Amino acid sequence: MIERQERTALLILLMVLVICGVFAVISEGFGKGPFAQNYTINSPEGSLVSYQGIIQKVTVTSTGGNTILDMGAVQLFIPASVGAIDVVAGDTIQVYGTIQIWKGKREILVKNSKDIRSWSDLKREISVSNGVG
After folding, report:
1. Residues 15 and 39 in one domain
2. What is the 3-state secondary structure (H, E, C) of the chain?
3. pTM as predicted
């Protein structure tokens, strides 16, 4: 038979697991926005950042099919594993990614296609949330 202290410990453990699960579901709904800092040239390597700007140049690497977006102030590296992205030079986008250093240059590593949002997508979301369109 389980002793009283053991039942209490199991109940506490179960409550902690439930709370962690609820927190995980809720935080997933928020996305990365609340956790990301605005990108600056002083953002430390490995930090989650948000960056918004106009794409200057789109380059697909000849080896691996990765995509590099030149944003002027910073480059975005999008691995082929993220999948196809629908952007062209001149598009205004907002991205979430992690700062990394590659060959001595800072870049933002984008790990998920949902972390790239075009200005037209953002305008559409604003219109829908305001009851327009």
Report:
1. no
2. CCCHHHHHHHHHHHHHHHHHHHHHHHHHHHCCHHHCEECCCCCCCCCEEEEEEECCEEEECCCCCCEEEECCCCEEEECHHHCCCCCCCCCEEEEEEEEEEECCEEEEECCCHHHEEEHHHHHHHHHHHCCCC
3. 0.69
